[in-house]
Design goal:
- Helix content is 42%, strand content 19%.
- The chain is α+β, with helices and mostly antiparallel strands and 246 residues long.
Length: 246
């Protein structure tokens, strides 16, 4: 079975058997395990190379001096710690585990080896562009959508991203996030999140029980969130950019 990272990359380009084997081998060679709520990397650390979430959920965040935290993004299996940070001397944000996490670390020299393969380089570039698109949407979410729309939009995004890597069960997904996590990702208070979740349940749009999110009517939730999944670029549009023939 392909790894989550392979599933993602093959939406961006057509990898040869040799490239699949190389990528699978590289992300399997060096792996580390983290317990829930443990930091994987901290702001100010040197970039660790290319980091891949192999199992579990993580999050990127920044913290103010008084302890207030803003979650900048959620990482699921197949997601990379931003490869654009590799040239920097130190990280400008932290990454922490939400659940138990298995993390694959690709050292810089091996990243350079990957970059010598045109289609792998293309897939890394495409993945970074999608990450930027997601960040723009998060900025719009916090800046212009109301609380109901923000939370609905986040649920839609997570559902589509999990579906893309084979981690949905019908209309349900595992959602190991606390109300505090949701609040820090949407710029709301935990009390406001609780009230908004009750509104969503009453409207029949979501069921959230025992860290399982069920969306009975995904189109209705998308309408409520004004959600357009185009920014996730999930329809294999990068396939036309294949660097060479398989």
């Amino acid at each position: 079975m392909p790894t989550a990272l392979l599933r993602k990359f093959e939406r961006y380009t057509h990898l040869s058997g040799e490239e699949r084997e190389l990528l699978t081998r590289i992300i399997s060679e060096r792996k580390r395990a983290f317990v829930p709520r443990e930091d994987i990397v901290r702001e100010g650390d040197p970039p660790p190379g290319l980091g891949v979430i192999r199992q579990g959920w993580a999050y990127c965040y920044k913290t103010l001096e008084d302890g207030r935290r803003q979650i900048l993004g959620f990482l699921i299996p197949g997601d990379l710690i931003d490869p654009a940070l590799l040239p920097f001397r130190e990280l400008d944000h932290s990454v922490g585990a939400i659940t138990s996490v298995v993390y694959g670390e690709v050292p810089r020299p091996i990243v350079e080896e990957l970059m010598r393969h045109p289609r792998l380089r293309q897939a890394l570039w495409w993945d970074w562009l999608v990450k930027l698109a997601i960040q723009r949407e998060w900025t719009l979410n916090v800046g212009r959508r109301d609380a109901f729309e923000r939370l609905a939009h986040l649920f839609c995004e997570l559902y589509f991203r999990l579906e893309a890597v084979g981690m949905t069960e019908g209309t349900s997904v595992q959602l190991p996030l606390t109300q505090t996590d949701l609040a820090e990702a949407t710029g709301l208070s935990a009390v406001h999140i609780n009230r908004t979740l009750q509104e969503m349940r009453s409207a029949g749009l979501v069921i959230l029980r025992d860290h399982v999110l069920t969306i009975p009517d995904l189109p209705a939730l998308q309408v409520a969130a004004m959600f357009n999944p185009a920014y996730l670029h999930l329809d294999h549009e990068g396939h036309q950019l294949d660097a060479n023939e398989a």
